[in-house]
Amino acid sequence: MTGEVGVWEVMALPFAECLVLVGIHSYLGLHVLRRQVIFVDLALAQIAALGTTIAFLFQIDPLSKGAYVFSLAATVLGAAVFSLTRFRREKIPQEAIIGLVYALASAVGILIVARAPHGAEHIQQILTGQLLWVKGSEVAAAAVVYTLVGVFHFVFRSKFLAISDDPEQARADGINVRLWDFLFYVSFGLVITHSVRTAGVLLVFVFLVVPAILGILITSRLSLQLLIGWGVGLLVSVGGLALSYRTDMATGPTVVSLYGAVLLAAAILLWVLRARRGRRRALGALVVGCAVVAAVAAGTVGLGRWMGSDPYWARMDGQAPHHPHGDHGHVGEAGGPDGACEGDCPVHRFLHGLEPLDIEARTRALSEQADPLFLEEILLHVQPEDAEMRLVVARRVSEVAPAAGIPALLELLSTAEIPLIRSDAMDALVVHSKDDFGFDPWDDPDTAPNQAALAKWRAWLASR
């Protein structure tokens, strides 16, 4: 869904957000590794997400100020729990408590969203975030908050480093470990509350842990660890955003995956360079390892294809194969292909087949359908909140049945929250109207110029 828009115009704000995330998370990640509480970030992120989910249950928008208050309050409560459960003589490791808190927060969140409308979309947003759609005001707010937290940690760095490195010695030196532990987790939670809103739980965890791991693997000096973390974060952010743009894949998961690949490659390289028994033997072991991985991958692909082609393995209780793109036929009186099934089974099967596909694959699948009535039925059954799916379907419907497709595109132009979807909807409309009427898809549809442009478009549609 790149259209005529340049990569920098699309990715400038996500890149800026990645920069501010890398700056503070690389530092906090070093503390997390020193404390050996690796999953505290995931736990706090999930607690922050739980606060947002509770707000969502009361129909408070996840990106609103009200949701932020709920999220921050939940995070402060979590910080208190983690600071109070750090005991001098631990019979139960604190990591176990952190894992339990994460599991409880996740379970309660799932129970809550099950009672909220569009809960599945909310869960996906919590995990992957909305990095691609981050606003300039959100980047600026995050930069201010992270800077204040960074200054706070710099001023009291001796206390924070002391309780992270050796809490017993810190107590002996007269430091109130429980108080400073609480302040650490509160400041940490404040960062997490901001980060989860845009980056999601998965990306926040990776930004925290991977740069810190790489820094610690290479050097023991804190200043160099920070520089390495920042440098790696910068390069991976640029690479991940560029890859996401070129391949039209989800931005957050793409950056997470690239971070994992970079960490694996760096670990292998360092292992080879530091091999005590000689690099030649290490390289030989690496070649054997790569061959084993390749064999396992090839075996998995072969096994999957064989089972997928055999009804005994691929079908449940001998059910007929599921063909989302090719078995709709013509809708008969009973509503199915040639009247074979009740309701609108072909439409539902086709839509179900489109759901896991990316935009290009959806577009290709729809281009194979030429029956206007069937395509209009698909458009009728697409959920209004699924703007991306409505875009690709409406675009195809406008080609074969303009009377049904053009109004749907115009509706997207006025209601879609994502600028790229508005831009693509406008491009499809311009093919028919030969004029954009001065509409700016990158500005809010409610502005006076855009409302005037929409009025002209509606007048043009009425005159057709």
Give an overview in words.
This protein folds into three domains: 7-208, ABC transporter involved in vitamin B12 uptake, BtuC; 280-314; 345-462, no CATH class. 74% of the residues lie in helices and 0% in strands. The protein has 20 helices and no strands. Helix 9 (177-218) packs across helix 11 (251-273), helix 10 (222-247) packs across helix 11 and helix 17 runs parallel beside helix 19. The radius of gyration is 26 Å and the shape is globular. The protein starts with 6 loop residues before the first helix and ends with a helix.
- Oligomerization: single chain
Largest sheet properties: none
Beta strand count: 0
The unreliable regions are 1-5, 318-344
| Number of helical elements | 20
What is the N-to-C order of secondary-structure elements (H for helix, E for strand)? HHHHHHHHHHHHHHHHHHHH
CATH architecture of the largest domain: Orthogonal Bundle
Using the coordinates shown, work out and report the CATH topology of the largest domain: ABC transporter involved in vitamin B12 uptake, BtuC
Radius of gyration: 26 Å
CATH class of the largest domain, named Mainly Alpha
Q: Can you tell me the CATH superfamily of the largest domain?
A: ABC transporter involved in vitamin B12 uptake, BtuC
Gap between N and C termini: 28 Å
Q: How many discrete structural domains?
A: 3
Report the helical percentage: over 70%
How large is the share of residues in beta strands? under 5%
Sum up the overall morphology in one term.
Answer: globular
Let me know the average pLDDT.
Answer: 79
The chain-level structural class is mainly alpha
